[in-house]
Specification:
TIM Barrel; 15 strands; Urease, subunit C, domain 1; binds fe (iii) ion; alpha/beta; 36% helix; binds 3-[(4S)-2,5-dioxoimidazolidin-4-yl]propanoic acid
Length: 408
């Protein structure tokens, strides 16, 4: 007997194929021991619902999608950067502020002086925004500590957020900015990250992957290459902030390391597209940062599509370039700013987001055997998820088969 059976529902399974959204109208879905045990047309159920499951939940014709996967966030940090926002509106650029010692460095100072509890509390508040829009898996990066102690404090704080009924994947991003104490010796910092920080973080199991900011104001492709080799040697996956503000050929480098994803990609060139296609590296699109920085060059969506590169969409929630806690708004922006279809946007926040985290066998689609992570929406068509801005659409969030109250 199943644990729970949802009926009177339409399913957007997001299984790729001929049917838009992998849709099953008038469908039903069942969970047992936290996994999806049955999915299909209600008419094909092998008996009367009450005889099949301990609990039957009627959905009033709602739509059920996979729980959303926000595959790129910096949810844990100290302070905020509202002052920097004001400066940028007066004409200062993101790069100018960073070079003058503001930007990421100011968040590093605030994060170093915060306790782990303060970090967990402020991140939990931002996480609520994600959960209220159906997120069941979220990736969280370090990168505002830039020393072993603070990077571990951030990653441990991120791990504690799992208590909110959400799957957390953690990524060490120590190559995010050069810490002030290493201003005169970049090589020594890169060495420290590769030889000390990554090994210690991997040994604690505090991260699943390593990331870096490959940029003129971040780290060179050679520096990233060196740290990625260390990360791979310690069993971590890799992913990269690549081609966000300029073309550093980071995506091709990431692809060479078998990266799960290359993220941002506004300045990605044809060779980068080809390398990603070849390696199966997911393109993670972050329209929140594009919007907030008032960028004008869009990632090469047409070329990624034509090359068959999977495209994920994420919030990039961070204090400097994307203070965004709404995955649905990110989907909307991926359509309006990058011209994704609403179906691609939803796939980007489910199936392809899962792939960008290496979780494609467990989450991201509604298929028998996958974890029963569901988002149940009061909408008439799945395109509405990319259409509204700021609407309350979620009816119910299900994490590993358990209905989780959305208002805590
Ligand atoms: N790219 C971004 O957009 C964020 N990090 C990165 O590498 C910005 C982080 C920040 O400004 O705090
Ligand atoms: Fe980011």
């Amino acid at each position: 007997m199943w644990d729970t059976l949802w009926v009177d529902a339409n399913l957007a399974t997001m299984v790729s194929g001929a049917k838009p959204y992998g849709a099953i109208p008038r469908g039903a879905i069942a969970a047992k021991d936290g996994r999806i045990a049955w999915v299909g047309f209600a008419a094909d159920l092998p008996g009367r619902p009450e005889t099949l499951a301990r609990e039957v939940r009627a959905c009033d014709n709602a739509w059920i999608t996979p729980g959303l996967v926000d595959c790129h966030t910096h949810l844990v940090f100290g302070g905020d950067r509202a002052r920097e926002f004001e400066l940028r509106l007066q004409g200062a650029s993101y790069e100018e502020i960073a070079r003058a010692g503001g930007g990421i460095a100011s968040t590093v100072a605030a994060t170093r002086s915060a306790t782990k509890r303060e970090l967990t509390t402020s991140a939990a508040r931002r996480l609520v925004g994600l959960l209220h829009e159906g997120v069941t898996t979220v990736e969280i990066k370090s990168g505002y500590g830039l020393d072993l102690e603070t990077e571990l404090k951030m990653l441990r704080a991120a791990g504690e957020l799992a208590a909110s009924g959400v799957r957390i994947k953690r990524t060490v991003l120590s190559l995010h900015a050069l810490p002030p104490e290493f201003k005169e010796d970049r090589a020594a910092y890169v060495q420290l990250v590769a030889d000390v920080m990554i090994p210690a973080i991997a040994a604690e199991g505090a991260a699943d992957a390593a990331d870096a900011f490959c940029e003129t104001i971040g780290f060179t492709a050679d520096e990233v290459d060196y740290v990625f080799s260390a990360a791979r040697a310690h069993g971590l996956d890799v992913k990269l902030h690549a081609e966000q503000l300029s073309n550093q050929h980071g995506a091709a480098l990431a692809a060479r390391h078998g990266a799960l994803s290359a993220d941002h990609l506004e300045y990605l060139d044809d060779a980068g597209v080809a390398a990603m296609a070849e390696a199966g590296t997911v393109a993670v699109l972050l329209p929140g940062a594009f919007y907030f920085l008032r960028e004008t060059q869009s990632p090469p969506i047409e070329k990624l599509r034509a090359a068959g590169v999977a495209m994920a969409v994420a919030t990039d929630c961070n204090p400097g370039t994307s203070p965004l806690t709404s995955p649905l708004a990110a989907m909307n922006m991926s359509c309006t700013l990058f011209r994704l279809t609403p179906e691609e946007a939803l796939a980007g926040m489910t199936r392809e987001g899962a792939r960008a985290l290496g979780l494609q066998d467990d989450v991201g689609t509604l298929e028998v055997g996958k974890v029963a992570d569901l988002a149940i929406w009061d909408i008439n068509s799945p395109a509405e998820l990319s259409y509204w801005l700021g609407a309350l659409l979620l009816r119910e969030r299900v994490f590993a088969g358990q209905v989780v109250p959305t208002i805590e």
